[in-house]
Every structure is written in C-alpha cells, then in structure tokens.
Amino acid sequence: MRWEYRAVPLWPRLGNDADAMNDTGDVTSALNALGADGWELVAVEWLEEADAPGGRVLTGFMKRPVG
Predict the structure, then answer these.
(1) pTM of the entire structure?
(2) Residue 58, domain extent
(3) Higher pLDDT, 16 or 46
(4) Residues 6+ apart with CB under 8 A from 26
(5) Which helix (H) or strand (E) holds 32?
C-alpha cells in the first residue's frame, strides 16, 4: 500500500498560558475534519518555528492511502 503524508500545525505554544493550551476544541474539530477526508493522525511533535509565539508549534503528522 502507498501512503501520502501531511504535516498539520495544530497550535502554537503560547508561553506559560496554560488555559490557552488546554482549549482543544479547535484542534479536535480540525482533526475530525481531516479524519473525515481519510487522514489518520500518526504522530504529534513540538517543532521549532521562529515566527510562532513561544518559538514552537505543536504539529500533527497525518497519513492516508494513495488512490
């Protein structure tokens, strides 16, 4: 089986703002929409990104079958 992959920024790290990090409603909706399109979440990682608040972005890695 062949796969295609996609990296999806889920949310930026907002310093010490724990309340913002705990608001997962938008992330849940985004992941459910991707799942409806056949994407499967396979990993989540904090990635360094200079333009992001706090310098890091939580990124989801998705895959789905090709064809």
Answers:
(1) 0.75
(2) 3-65
(3) 46
(4) 11
(5) helix 25-36
- Pairwise CA distance, residues 66 & 4, whole Å: 6
Other Cβ atoms within 10 Å of 57 Cβ, number:
19
Q: HSE-up of 45 (CA within 13 Å, CB side)?
A: 8
Determine what percent of the chain falls in helix, strand and coil, rounding each to the nearest 5. 30, 45, 25
Q: Comparing C-alpha atoms, which of 45, 58, 59, 61 is closest to residue 13?
A: 58
Q: Domain tally for the chain?
A: 1
Token pair 């939580």 in the structure block, residue? 58
pLDDT for 9-45, tens place per residue? 887 655 555 555 555 667 888 899 999 999 999 999 9
- 23: tokens are 């608001």
